[in-house]
Description:
The chain is mainly alpha-helical.
Amino acid sequence: MAWDEWERLKTQAAEERSTRMRLNQLAPGSGGGGNQQGDLEVNQKDLAAIGDAAFELRQEFERVSNHARTASQKAASGLKSEGFALGGALDHVASRWVDQSRSLLDATAHISNHLDYTKGAHAGDEVHIAGTISTISTLDAGFDERKGA
């Protein structure tokens, strides 16, 4: 490559880079979805559905995983008893399968349990907020009475 070709390529790359530069934000007022919805909203039905799905996933995966584990361990044992080196490798894979399966089962149980806890905690928060707001209304009414309104 000649020096002048190198300089031309560098100049061309710099020009392309400058034309590809864009401001890293949107103009004020334009958004990524059109409608401004406000705060994130989740209801108890949504939380319950996710928790139920995690629980069902855990139950079904545990059943299928146990079948895969026992079949693999049985095959590994048979191969080892016949003198095949593959039996030891399959036994190693089966033990790793058990470890990974337990991790997934623990994670799905954690999701299900956490959502159940969240549902209860938010219900308690709602009761507390409603009580606080009704207390404020009672106080306001009392001040209005004293003021003669």
